[in-house]
Amino acid sequence: MSGDEKSLQERHAPASICFGCGPANERGLRIRSFPQGDVVVADWKPEAWHEAFPGMLSGGITGTLLDCHSNWTAAWHLMKQAGLAEPPCCVTAEYAVQLRRPIPSGETVHLEARVVESKEDRAVIESSLVAGGKVCATCRGTFVAVKPGHPAYHRWG
Amino acid sequence: MSGDEKSLQERHAPASICFGCGPANERGLRIRSFPQGDVVVADWKPEAWHEAFPGMLSGGITGTLLDCHSNWTAAWHLMKQAGLAEPPCCVTAEYAVQLRRPIPSGETVHLEARVVESKEDRAVIESSLVAGGKVCATCRGTFVAVKPGHPAYHRWG
Question: What does A78-141 look like in DSSP terms, one character per residue?
């Protein structure tokens, strides 16, 4: 995860404008996800406008981080599973977030995600957000590779 | 829902800096929620930087809208239930979002939320996002009034 290494997003979707993970969205969260063995990890530093109240991260931003990071975990897994050079374009079918404790916004948070189920065109991903050494939020979501004709198909840029 | 009428957020938490619903967060979504009979409604217009890909709203932003709007629905309900003049400060315990179809980002979206279960200090809220005349996303979440000592207590501004 050095500054020189390209993230999944930078490598496979550099022109994406997604609010959560698009490298080309200057007002977005621009998470950078990196495979690390069986999991995918990311470190991300909140800014003041991402808070719910002073000092604590917004639950919506928390969900956005876990949703996008999990979506990339699914895309990376489906790419490997099918022996593709590029990940299929995936969209979120559903995600559920548990906010277990307040998330301090003054420090970098750590995301970690893993595949828990998968089929040919979809994966179920479990993920967590760790801050201050504690698991503050967890998420479980289902992510689906879209087919030609879906509005998202080949729109990752 | 005229421009003159104050939203729940403007009435009860005008200094809140929450990313999703704080009137004082200039970079936030600034949703404006209004009780309407048994439900709470909001209309919200996306901007380009809220998209997942061109023309479609981000799933994380969608979850943020439904989370914050539902939280205010819970706070409003708990206020009425207890006969209070101001809503208790509520936080999200968990929320689950189903993204049923792509959400067009070029038009105003409509949020609607209702209480489906409640106790003295918490409520379960179901909500939906309608765009283009169709239910595009639904959400179910649990929202809890915090007590003195919680970092969020009396921090709505």
Answer: HHHHHT-SSPPPEEEEEEEEEE-S--BSSS-EEEEEEEEEE-SSEEEEEEEEEETTEEEEEEEE
Cβ-based contacts of B139 with chain A (< 8 Å): none
Distance CA A146, CA A71 (A): 12
What is the rounded distance in angstroms from the CA atom of residue B148 to the CA atom of residue B143?
16
**Cβ contacts of A26 on chain B, cutoff 8 Å:** 49
Closest CA of chain A from B36, distance in Å: 24
The full set of domain ranges for chain B reads 33-145
Residues A50 and A95 sit within 8 Å (Cβ to Cβ): no
Q: How far is CA B53 from CA A15, A95, B83, B111, B146, in A?
A: 10, 19, 45, 21, 37
Q: Is the pLDDT of residue A2 over 60?
A: no
pLDDT (tens digit, 9 = 90+) per residue, A43-80?
999 999 999 999 999 999 999 999 999 999 999 999 99
Distance CA A88, CA A146 (A): 7
pLDDT digits (tens, 9 = 90+) for B106-130: 999 999 999 999 999 999 999 999 9
Contact flag B98-A97 (C-beta cutoff 8 Å): no
A chain contacts of residue B132, beta-carbon cutoff 8 Å: none
Please give the CATH topology (third level) of the domain spanning B33-145: Thiol Ester Dehydrase; Chain A (3.10.129)
DSSP letter, residue B61: H
ipTM of the complex: 0.95
Q: Do A28 and B16 touch (CB under 8 A)?
A: no
Cross-chain Cβ contact A97/B93 below 8 Å: no
- Residue to mutate among A29, A57, A68, A97, with most B CBs inside 10 A, is A97
